[in-house]
Amino acid sequence: MSPGRAKGLQQLLDQLHTYMPPTQVAEVVRAYEFGAKAHEGQTRLSGEAYISHPVAVALILAEMHMDWQAIIAAILHDVVEDTAVTIGNIESEFGAEVATLVDGVSKLDQIQFHSRAEAQAESFRKMLLAMVEDIRVILVKLADRLHNMRTMDSMPRDKQARIARETLEIYAPIANRLGINHIKIALEDLGLRHLYPYRYRVLEKSMRKAIGDQRQMMRRISGRIEKSLQDADIDGELVGRQKHLYGIYRKMVDKGRMLSEIVDVYGFRIIVKDVNTCYRVLGIVHGLFKPVPGRFKDYIAIPRINGYQSLHTTLFGPNGVPLEVQIRTVEMHRVAESGVAAHWQYKAVNKTDANPQRQAREWLARLIEIQQSENTEEFMESVKVDLFPDKTYVFTPNGDIMPLPKGSTTVDFAYAVHTDVGNRCVAAKIDRQLVPLRTQLSNGQTVEIITARGAKPNPNWVNFVTTAKARSAIRNYMKNMRRGEAVDLGKRLIDKSLKDLGSSLRKIGKVRMTTAIKELGLKSANDLFEQLGLGLRLAPLTANFLLGQEKSEDQHLNKSKLVIAGTEGMVVSYAKCCYPLPGDDVMGYLSSGRGVVIHRNCCGNLSNFRKQPEKWINVTWEEGVDREFSTQIQVDSESHTGVLAEVAATIADSKSNIEQVSVLDRHEDCSVITFVLHVKDRTHLAQVLRGVRNMPSVIRVTRDCA
Predict the structure, then answer these.
(1) Which of 89, 194, 458, 551 lies deepest, with the highest CB count within 10 Å?
(2) Which of 201-210, 308-317, 530-539, 646-655 shows the lowest mean pLDDT across its residues?
(3) Which of 194, 200, 82, 180 is nearest to 149 (CA)?
């Protein structure tokens, strides 16, 4: 055993003996021997034996007092990726729990990806989903990333920058989200050092100088605070709070402030025994120094989204210098530094009730819903949204606090309450006042969601929601709804085409359908119907295939007609070139990926019928269609002040809503205006045209065909 290797192992064992029984330490030693043998002959870029890295990762976790399974998983976290050892080998040697942890951390090198970004995203997805089962997976991964960041100097510069950026975008925010402050700060500072080395050196030099200059002033301030605490008979620990470099850098970038404005701020932390004493100390420091208005935050009453609790206040210190003070209990300080890791580090009576643990589990549980997205890179971007929460705290009507990312809307709130509440949301109230659903929330508001049975998500919500859960839920609902509509339409299309050939779906039978599905390389009949409904496969050709016939010469004539009711949803749409209405003679065009697009028979685009006859189908309107459709009219009128308002009022009197208005041409004596309206059918449109035509200032009104 090399001296360096022995030293690393000894440090780990010394740390483990402080809190772990000897039998568990013996298991860790056995895991070390297993890992050292597997990594035998492998070295890092620095020239050290490779086993030194897993041991260093295990030491980081040991300093957090993690249990023996997590320590062993840290020692073995690279053996599956870099050696011949399998997950099965680990399970047989150290049990299923350790094997699950190692598998969650391992990368997906054995899978072929289309791009490096996809590989990273898929690996990230697997890691996050493993976290849902066991949160120790991410703790091992964070410790792994922290040691890698500490030992990157021997890597090429471009690789350093790439890993540093990934650390700042993903891993540091995860550490923050889980409340593990000391790892978050270390990752951020190391990320800044490797991504922007020159900026890091300038900041570090300035900070060292500022700390040296501030020592005398810090002693004066701390002396006054300590004396006031003694006079009030309060036993508390007062420490100077050192700012970390990345936090300073982000303030300079985000707030456009000079370095001198940020470093010339004094920070103190006061740690006391209980919550009541926190508020007493707050009164004492406010008595010593005047508080800055608007700069007090009570994270004890309303904890941050990651479980962090503390009182924050900014004061006018001696000579007017800003003085930032944090006041918290011993337990709050442990949670602030260790987050979910405090669950293992300090043995609570009931661990499941630990606040950061519960909050982390709630967040991780939401990942299950988010991960239903098929695109792994899209999943990664969605999760990033949740990793930068910059919080907004609102209240439910029952007075419960709901933390949401900054910029969240009432729809985000609805989905945060429950997916079903979001899906059935029709209106919202903020502080008992009705507001638009896209309204952004502010701290302290009370939000109430109004739902209706049968209501559905609006696809436009995706454009303004902020949270990953809301966005994912809306997309999944629309995807499933569209599939159902496409299946229904496809079934009607193929049945119509089969009837043209003297057959039907019922006559085809299950045996022939099953054989045809296999020949087409599909999994089920619904997959075939969906492709037909979306226009990805043509019904006449598919009908011939099912019957085993060649395409007939007059196949495109489509003897029978597809009946449309206007309620088919997203798979039947109405062309914007001619705006068809119930009562118009219409044809349907099968557009790939969009389903059936309905055109009027007088539409200029029907000239394509001769070029692609197999894509056009005969359609007819169902009787008694009850919904509104868009249509377009053109109005030529005399040009005078207020003519547009007059025409709009006449249209409104005909019980028609105006969707869009545009002025095509304007002369001294004539204006040409187009209106896109909502009407029920041709009869309703005729009433609108009659009303506009009878206006004295209107010269002509027409509904043109494309």
Answers:
(1) 194
(2) 530-539
(3) 194
Q: Which residue of the set 67, 81, 103, 448 is catalytic?
A: 81
For residue 500, indicate whether it is catalytic: no
Structure tokens at 116: 């490096």
In this structure, the number of other CB atoms found within 10 A of the CB of residue 536 comes to: 16
Residue 81: active-site member: yes
Picking from 23-27, 28-32, 226-230, 248-252, which range would have the lowest pLDDT averaged per residue? 248-252
CB 60 within 8 Å of CB 11 = no
User: What are the structural domain ranges in the chain?
Assistant: 3-195, 210-346, 356-475, 479-621, 629-702
Q: ∠ CA(185), CA(386), CA(446), 5° rounding? A: 115
- When pLDDT is averaged across residues 482-488 and rounded to a whole number, the result is 74
Residue of higher predicted confidence among 387 and 231: 231
Instruction: Indicate if the pLDDT at residue 327 is higher than 90.
Output: yes
Mind listing the pLDDT tens digit for each residue in 660-686?
Answer: 888 877 666 788 888 999 898 888 999
Instruction: Tell me if residue 598 falls in helix, strand or coil.
Output: strand
Pick the CATH number of 3-195 from 2.60.120.260, 1.10.3210.10, 1.20.120.420, 2.60.120.10: 1.10.3210.10
**DSSP of 477-538:** HHHHHHHHHHHHHHHHHHHHHHHHTT--HHHHHHHHHHHHHHHTT-S-HHHHHHHHHTTSS-
Answer for the pair 472, 370: CB distance below 8 angstroms, yes or no.
yes
pLDDT at position 547 over 60:
yes
Q: Is CATH 3.90.105.10 the right assignment for the domain spanning 356-475?
A: no
The CATH code for residues 210-346 is 3.30.460.10
Residues 6+ apart with CB under 8 A from 405: 385, 386, 388, 389, 390, 391, 392, 412, 466, 467
Using CA atoms, how far residue 465 sits from 412, 461, 471, 478, 480, in Å, is 6, 6, 6, 15, 20
The residue from 82, 91, 381, 614 that is catalytic is: 82
Amino acid at 93: E
The CA distance from 55 to 33, in Å, is 11
Tokens of residue 602, six digits: 């007088």
| Tokens of residue 665, six digits | 């041409």
pLDDT score at 126? 59
